[in-house]
Amino acid sequence: MPVRAVGWARSFPVSLGVREARRWCLAHLETLPWTGGAPDTVHSVLLTVSELVTNAHVHAHSSARLVLTWDGCCLHVSVADDDPELPAPRPASTRASSGRGLAIVDAVADGWDAHAFHGGKTITACFHPPDEPSPLAREARGS
């Protein structure tokens, strides 16, 4: 069976801000048939968009190129920026006011990864609809 997917892409310069990225993302999430019954997943996607777009603006000092792709199994949320250094989750000090973004993404997404490319990197998080167990959960059960 051929793979069918739908996707959207937009660049968010620092001047547009994170709020506009969340608003744009929500408008596209509302077109997917499963998101109306999955408010927690929608919230997790929007939280991830906030964290990844913020990281692109603050740490990479670049526009955030946001791509949403629904492949029928996973909603892929990808953000590319101009910094080729791959992120590494690190424990944040209790006194730090930042440094928790990737830990948050790790906690709310079904999975995530980062890939460097010439002149930048892309971080992609995957979200499964609530009625679809993640492939990681199926592997853990041994199915």
TrEMBL record:
It comes from the Bacteria. Pfam families: HATPase_c_2. Keywords: Kinase, Serine/threonine-protein kinase, Transferase. The keyword Kinase applies. GO terms for molecular function: protein serine/threonine kinase activity. Residues 18-125 form the Histidine kinase/HSP90-like ATPase domain. This is Histidine kinase/HSP90-like ATPase domain-containing protein.
